[in-house]
């Protein structure tokens, strides 16, 4: 259950040191004494230990005695150092739950960009919200797992080097969007870098300490070395800390100091934000770790201090937190990792320090009384054993990173990386010598070579995934892949990184995973680094249009390294207009490649299609379909396809209410996109996925024109049970024809069915007033085109609710000789690239194929657009050329057939001649197209050249 349902809406304030024990406090809790030590009389009983010790075996939280019930909060906090929050009081629990649920939904709506009132409006809204709720529940339960390691490209990871600090760099962290990088230094300076350009964007300078009363309390900046940084999950705040013992909070956008929190009694060495983005019910929480051996919790929503967590016996060196109200910390020389359960006010203690066999032997030796010879032999044996030793004693746990809410990894001076779960006291897996050994030649008789493990100096995990990375000073960052059960891990690859790596973070800007690290000459806690290294320049791709083409393109592009993708969609709410859509083998193939196929679970399986005379009911042709395949042809609601695609578009990629009005070629600077709301954006590559009336195409192909084909289509959905009662034949997908009209009736699943009625008018006469696309039209108007149809069909047409019909006037344009323009800065996908107005009833499939091929081409040529876009053209142009040729041929044949019939042909003859009954031409090149195979063949051919 998402904890935001239960978290108080107002900021909690837990000033334990000042309060009498609260009613929520568990009975038997002893009051802490001054100085943080327990009074003798309040010493914990075995059941009320300070730390929650875990058994070796699976931990049963109910039965395992030892859940810590002691107050872990600061007994000696200066209350004036912090601001206060408020407490909820006059609300019944039921009222509170209702209010919180409402606020939570409001937060979700806001996050999805839905305006008030829209939430109940339509199915798509419900689906979006339900998908978000499911995601939230999974994330809150800490169970979301992204298996991304296999797609993470490590080889040749590009990097940016920046120089700006006068003294050593101590830390680096990027904003969640990967736009900004912040680095801290021993010079007391924090530098904000623009990762798009690699240039310095702002410098937060060190301040002079205020010699007066407050001793620097009121100074708007740090007065000494900065050691730790963290950015809030919404990217709004940067937190910093260091030798001046103050936690600084900065406004990232305004480049301003917001607040300084005093309270720590020693240097601040670690900072981490809780990774739940602030909503109406979740505040922005920040944890700090200090050499004073405590952690502190701050609430940045109310800018208040919350509490102090006690337990570590040595300076805290590292911290991490995820969505839930938990944190892990590494206690350096106390050799523990502590897992803090904030609401329960308990901590689990995981003891590192795993031994070496050599040390164990040494400990067990009785050397007294040995003669020289025996001792010599023993020493020699010891030296030999030491040379083979792979496990070393851990003297300090230096770094820790959370994988999910129960799993975390730690590294230390033994060189081992340990994988922990909250269920076990001991590591579930240990990788000894993760970064190898340092060997030093010394001229002693018994130990000519001294081998020491390289410490694991930094560790970072891609949260809720199977990927993490570690750093040391062996010249590489090692990237590790966890197995599916999170029971072990293996090396995935290395990224070269000279110097000592002293911080590693993954950030997940929209559509991509990026590893970011900070390196220096000395190990992390000596804070002696000289330069930092981050990720490379990225290709900025703007996809215009959030239809099937745009969404599929973004999904495919989001898997490509060093590429940032945005979708700009004009609609304020992504809601597919129209009714049903056919998903055949070709479309399933591309959905599989996109990883979306299993998400599309709704639809009506088409076991047969009929062609009938709409006036007489004569069945002219019946085609039986194979349904015993893994993915048979279906007719589904368009919204279902859209929701399935949307579920795979990474968060933050889509920007709604962005109607493109103008695109400008800015030469080497890229392409400038201007939107109706007055905003603009710049991209290196613009993908025109904006449909048949493409603004992108109009800009780059100014002479291109589309024309009304003569066909107008009206589409609507209806509850289908009553429709089938009207005529059982309506249960089967069918075209009911007139000579120049037809009515398509088909179930689309979930009790609904679709009517798509078409009529043809002479384009020479009607083109001027035909500009409609998804425009509502009245019922009587639609009915007027089907007067001669069977009463049952007319009856069904009349059941469509007034206002539900949408009109689509089919337009078409000529074949393009290239789908790319502006020196490979513009490319068209989907309907914009081949203006055929659904002529094959598979245009969504084509659009998605385009997007997938484009992404493969970019990946193949490592984002080199000058090579990737010609490859895209090479694969897709002949395909569309074949479609145009086919349509031309079909039109000529139909005209010839009609001519043969002559003017006196009856209504029924004209209907018959319209329908292809002999199976027609082999159309498997469209409906059986396997785009993955097409790609492979294209690459094989390319390599032979
Ligand atoms: C009657 C009919 C029946 C069809 N049946 C099928 C079928 O059964 N199966 C099938 O696969 N295909 C079918 N198609 C074709 C299919 O609908 C299209 O080929 C497909 O939707 C094309 O996808 P797209 O993403 O290229 O364009 P679209 O779906 O048109 O999406 C374009 C997107 O761009 C946005 N946009 C437009 N202009 C701007 C702008 N200036 N700024 C920002 N955003 C903009 C639009 O709002 C829209 O969201 C049918 C088409 C028609 C007309």
TrEMBL record:
The keyword Nucleus applies. Residues 49-62 have a biased composition (Basic and acidic residues). It holds the Pfam family FAD_binding_3. It is found in: Nucleus. WD repeats lie at residues 162-203, 219-260, 309-350, 465-483. Residues 540-858 form the FAD-binding domain. Keywords: FAD, Flavoprotein, Nucleus, Oxidoreductase, Repeat, WD repeat. One of its GO terms (cellular component) is small-subunit processome. Residues 77-92 have a biased composition (Acidic residues). Residues 1-95 are annotated as: Disordered. Its main location: nucleus. GO terms for molecular function: FAD binding; oxidoreductase activity; U3 snoRNA binding. This is FAD-binding domain-containing protein.
């Amino acid at each position: 259950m998402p904890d935001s349902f239960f978290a108080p809406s107002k900021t909690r304030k837990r000033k334990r040191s000042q309060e009498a024990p609260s009613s929520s406090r568990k009975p038997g809790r002893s009051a802490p004494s001054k100085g943080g030590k327990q009074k003798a009389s309040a010493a914990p009983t075995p059941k009320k230990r300070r730390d929650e010790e875990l058994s070796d075996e699976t931990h049963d939280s109910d039965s395992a005695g030892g859940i810590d019930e002691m107050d872990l909060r600061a007994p000696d906090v200066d209350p004036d150092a912090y601001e206060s929050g408020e407490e909820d009081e006059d609300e019944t629990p039921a009222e509170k739950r209702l209010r919180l649920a409402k606020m939570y939904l409001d937060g979700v709506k806001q996050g999805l960009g839905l305006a008030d009132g829209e939430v109940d409006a339509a199915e798509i809204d419900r689906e979006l919200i339900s998908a978000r709720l499911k995601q939230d529940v999974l994330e809150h339960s800490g169970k979301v797992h992204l298996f991304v390691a296999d797609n993470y490209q490590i080889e040749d990871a590009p990097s940016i080097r920046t120089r700006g600090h006068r003294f050593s760099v101590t830390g680096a962290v990027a904003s969640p969007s990967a736009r900004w990088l912040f680095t801290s230094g021993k010079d007391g300076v924090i530098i904000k870098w623009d990762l798009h350009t690699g240039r310095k964007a702002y410098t937060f300078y060190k301040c002079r300490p205020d010699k007066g009363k407050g001793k620097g309390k009121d100074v708007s900046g740090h007065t000494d070395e900065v050691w730790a940084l963290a950015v809030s999950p919404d990217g709004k705040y940067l937190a910093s800390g260091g030798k001046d013992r103050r936690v600084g909070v900065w406004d990232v956008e305004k480049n301003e100091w917001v607040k300084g929190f005093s309270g720590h009694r020693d240097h601040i060495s670690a900072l981490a934000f809780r990774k739940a983005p602030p909503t109406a019910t979740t505040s922005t929480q920040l944890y700090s770790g200090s050499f004073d051996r405590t952690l502190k919790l701050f609430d940045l929503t109310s800018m208040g201090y919350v509490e102090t967590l006690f337990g570590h016996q040595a300076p805290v060196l590292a911290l991490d937190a995820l969505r839930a109200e938990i944190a892990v910390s590494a206690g350096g020389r106390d050799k523990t990792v502590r897992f803090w359960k904030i609401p329960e006010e308990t901590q689990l203690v995981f003891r590192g320090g795993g031994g070496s066999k050599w040390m164990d032997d040494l400990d067990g030796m009785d050397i007294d009384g040995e003669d020289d010879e025996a001792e010599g032999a023993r020493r020699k044996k010891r030296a030999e054993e030491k040379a083979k030793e792979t496990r070393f004693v851990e003297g300090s746990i230096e770094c820790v990173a959370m994988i999910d809410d129960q799993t975390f990894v730690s590294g230390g001076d033994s060189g081992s990386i340990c994988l922990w779960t909250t269920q076990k006291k001991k590591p579930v897996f240990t990788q000894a010598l993760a970064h190898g050994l340092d060997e030093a030649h010394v001229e002693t008789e018994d130990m000519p070579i001294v081998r020491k493990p390289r410490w694991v100096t930094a560790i970072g995990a891609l949260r809720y995934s199977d990927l993490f990375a570690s750093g040391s000073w062996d010249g590489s960052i090692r990237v590790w892949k966890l197995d599916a059960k999170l029971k072990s891990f293996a090396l995935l690859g290395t990224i070269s990184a000279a110097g000592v790596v002293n911080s590693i973070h993954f950030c997940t800007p929209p559509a991509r995973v990026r590893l970011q690290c900070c390196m220096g000459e000395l190990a992390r806690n000596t804070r002696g680094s000289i330069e930092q290294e981050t990720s490379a320049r990225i290709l900025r791709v703007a996809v215009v249009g959030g239809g099937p083409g745009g969404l599929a393109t973004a999904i495919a592009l989001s898997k490509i390294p060093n590429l940032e993708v945005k979708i700009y969609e004009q609609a304020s709410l992504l809601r597919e207009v129209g009714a049903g859509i056919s998903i055949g083998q070709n479309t399933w193939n591309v959905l599989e490649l996109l990883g979306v196929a299993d998400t599309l679970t709704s639809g009506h399986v088409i076991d047969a299609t009929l062609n009938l005379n709409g006036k007489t009911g004569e069945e002219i042709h019946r085609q039986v379909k194979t349904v015993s395949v893994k993915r048979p042809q279906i007719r589904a609601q368009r919204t279902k396809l859209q929701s399935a695609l949307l579920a795979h578009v990474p968060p933050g990629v889509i920007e709604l209410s962005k109607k493109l009005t103008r695109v400008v070629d800015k030469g080497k600077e890229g392409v400038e996109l201007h939107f109706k709301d007055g905003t603009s954006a710049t991209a290196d590559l613009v993908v025109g996925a904006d449909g048949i009336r493409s603004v992108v195409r109009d800009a780059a192909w100014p002479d291109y024109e589309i024309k009304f084909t003569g066909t107008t289509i009206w589409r609507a959905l209806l509850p289908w049970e009553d429709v089938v009662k009207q005529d059982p034949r309506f249960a089967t997908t069918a075209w009911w024809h007139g000579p120049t009209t037809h009515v398509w009736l088909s179930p689309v699943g979930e009790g609904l069915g679709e009517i798509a009625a078409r009529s043809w008018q002479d384009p020479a006469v009607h083109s001027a007033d035909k500009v409609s696309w998804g425009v509502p039209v009245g019922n009587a108007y639609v009915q007027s085109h089907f007067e001669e149809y069977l009463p049952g069909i007319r009856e069904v047409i009349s059941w469509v609710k007034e206002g539900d019909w949408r009109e689509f006037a089919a337009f078409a344009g000529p074949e393009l000789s290239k789908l790319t323009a502006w020196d490979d800065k513009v490319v068209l996908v989907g309907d914009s690239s081949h203006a055929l107005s659904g002529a094959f009833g598979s245009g969504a499939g084509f659009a998605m194929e385009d997007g997938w091929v484009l992404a493969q081409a970019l990946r193949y040529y490592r984002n080199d657009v000058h090579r990737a876009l010609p490859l895209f053209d090479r694969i897709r142009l002949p395909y569309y050329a074949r479609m145009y040729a086919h349509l031309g041929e079909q039109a000529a044949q139909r005209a010839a057939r009609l001519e043969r019939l002559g003017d006196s042909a009856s209504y029924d003859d004209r209907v018959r001649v319209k329908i292809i009954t002999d199976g027609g031409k082999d159309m498997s090149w469209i409906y059986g197209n396997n785009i993955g195979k097409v790609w492979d063949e294209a690459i094989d051919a390319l390599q032979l050249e």
